[in-house]
Amino acid sequence: MLWSLAGDIRMLLTLPAALAMQVAHPAVGAGVDDHSVFRTDPWGRGERSLTSLQLWVYGGEAAAAEGRRLRALHKTIQGTDAHGRAYHALTPAYYAWVHATGYPVFRHAQQYLGRPFTEAQERALYAEWLQVGRILGIHDRDMPQTIEEFWPYYQKVLDNELEETVVVKELLATDPQLPVPDRGPRWLRLLLRLSWPWLCPRFARVRRFLTIGLMPPDARQAIGLEWTDAQERTLRRLGRVVRAVMPVLPERLRFMPIARRARQAARR
């Protein structure tokens, strides 16, 4: 399941929803607020996160090394959240929640961007997501081991933990102070510098729309995010376009580089 899903460019549309659910947990949000460079280097931070995620699925032996790197990176991330409670990034409940968000977001977004999963596919995807969690150093005792156990756990976190944290508000802001992207060829960077005052607020509105829309409705409600019927209709129209376009694209355009290279190597 993940071999086909994780490297698909449609996944890029789902990442903001998963990130917002992660940082809606006060401990995770505080860790990002205190220690992340998402404000000063959002594009580099996003690129590194995407590369890391791709390695978990397509990296082979590099996947285990990446898991060890991430745990080492998080060892020093600690502090106090907005409620005055101490946190540490490797506290099992917090570390597991960050990983857990991927499953419901994948499942929900698939209803718009692809064909809804069958029950068998949902179970297979969850089993694979657990395996990725083991690569990241998440013990089986810290994650529900079946779908039947997952949903009560998930609902408990929604009911008792999630809120609209400072970081969530920043990620959903429509007037962010985002630096100009500095990736890509020179002509593109120049074009972005010239057009950024016009482009940035429009990018922020699209990001907010996709973040809230591709977030499962129960998580959206738990955080207190508004979503209208008109927005739902727009998202469904967008989904129809995506579903029509994706099958006709060549593989080199449908998959991100790490995934594409791994898929090509597997066919040799």
Description:
The chain has 268 residues and is mainly α. The protein has helices spanning 2-5, 11-23, 26-35, 42-58, 61-74, 92-100, 102-113, 119-135, 147-160, 166-171, 186-213, 217-223, 229-245, 251-254, 257-266, and strands at 78-80, 86-88. The protein has one domain. It contains 15 helices and two strands. Strands 1-2 form a two-stranded antiparallel ribbon. It comes from Streptomyces lydicamycinicus. GO terms for molecular function: oxidoreductase activity. This is ER-bound oxygenase mpaB/mpaB'/Rubber oxygenase catalytic domain-containing protein.
Give a quick set of tags describing it.
two-stranded antiparallel ribbon; mainly alpha; 268 residues; ER-bound oxygenase mpaB/mpaB'/Rubber oxygenase catalytic domain-containing protein; MPAB/Lcp_cat_dom; signal; oxidoreductase activity
Brief summary of the model shown:
This protein is mainly α and 268 residues long. 68% of the residues lie in helices and 2% in strands.
